[in-house]
Amino acid sequence: MMSERTPLTIQQIYTLAETCMLANGCDSANAAAVAKTVSTAERDGSESHGLFRIPGHVASLRSGKVNGKAEPEIEAVTPAAIRLDGHNGFAPLALERGIPVLADAAETLGIAVLAIRKSHHFAALWPETEAIAERGLVGLACTAHTPMVAPYGAKKAFFSTNPISFAWPRPNKPPYVFDMATAAMARGEVGLAARDGHALPEGVGLDSDGNPTTDAKAVHQGGVILPFGTYKGSAIATMIELLSAGLVGDYFSYEAGEADNKDGGPAQGGQLIIAMSPKIIAGDNWEAHSEDFLSKLENMDGVRLPGQRRHKNRLSTEPRLIKTELVEKIRSLTSDE
Ligand code: NDP
């Protein structure tokens, strides 16, 4: 009998993803960038942004929605405003090319913004904000795509799950980082619950008739997710839509939904990433001052800092246990091209 989970090392996860991307029309740079994103997610225990996403990527390559050979193009509109055209590729290569340029600009100017258009995201945001923090900078990132969240008071999808991530650099330790959907639950998590037959907590979603439900399948297939924190989450989602679409010059989620070919892969979505230099903005004492704050916070009874679960997972050298069915699926998508 087929075992439910297959142990794979991070390198094996990377190779599985990379080989599948190459077999389905990616060039080596795009295949490597997607494989890095996917294996990084599995390394940190983010199953919903790991290999789980590969079948969707393949669908988008096969339908022609995503160009697996896209070469992202960078244009510095001003020294502090960097615009990057993803030319319809997957986001990981655009991010790989854009983040160092953004960080260089912020180190010189104090603040810089990277606006990525025409790329297809499908991933977590913390690798990008952490990469900015590793340069001693403060990072903030958000994105919008595919409508699946009803604004507070409504029953129809209008927002995407609109994630936002923030990272603050810390001396000799991982940054303070949070990375979260502004929906009551990320769509990938709802998808996993639907796949695995788990119920959702109350207040996460509505079924296709607009009624509250805890049935993950009813929310995932035809229903909608709700914003976190009722009207407050709705306001933050609105801000993210405006930053990621209005300011970037890409689709709002409802526009992305209309333009998408519904192949099951990631819709086009804009991304706004900001980098700020505390050294330039706050002056030399910034690190000791904020470190004092963060260490007081993390030493309070009952508090754990966001990011700590992922940083702990990252240290494990054990193989990651991947659903065998998924591994088989990716292998078949690699060989039947
Ligand atoms: P979670 O709700 O699991 O976690 C959100 C944040 O809260 C994380 O930084 C997490 O840190 C932290 N956290 C969780 N529990 C606690 C706790 N008890 N105390 C303190 N902090 C805590 O994330 P989501 O489900 O909202 O999002 C999952 C991922 O999905 C994100 O990476 C997001 O970027 C991604 N996503 C991507 C989208 C896209 O369009 N590309 C769309 C929507 C989501 P830790 O990780 O250490 O637990």
Structural write-up:
The chain is globular, with a radius of gyration of 20 Å. It has 13 helices and 12 strands. It has one domain (5-335): Malate/L-lactate/L-sulpholactate dehydrogenase, NADPH binding domain (Ribosomal Protein S8, Chain: A, domain 1), CATH 3.30.1370. It is of the alpha+beta class and 337 residues long. The mean pLDDT is 96. Helices cover 43% and strands 21% of the residues. The structure holds NADPH dihydro-nicotinamide-adenine-dinucleotide phosphate. NADPH dihydro-nicotinamide-adenine-dinucleotide phosphate (NDP) binds at residues 46, 121-126, 143, 145, 161, 163, 165, 178-181, 186, 188-189, 304, 306-310.
Question: Mind sketching the topology for me?
Answer:
Elements (H helix, E strand, L loop, with lengths): L4 E4 L1 H14 L4 H16 L10 H10 L9 E6 L2 E10 H19 L1 E10 L5 H8 L4 E6 L20 E7 L2 E8 L6 H10 L8 E2 L5 E2 L2 H5 L3 E2 L4 H18 L5 H7 L8 E9 L1 H4 L4 H13 L9 H8 L4 E4 H12 L2
Parallel strand pairs: 3-4
Antiparallel strand pairs: 1-12, 2-3, 4-11, 5-6, 5-11, 6-7, 8-9, 8-10
Helix pairs in contact: 1-2, 1-13, 2-4
Bound molecules: NADPH dihydro-nicotinamide-adenine-dinucleotide phosphate.
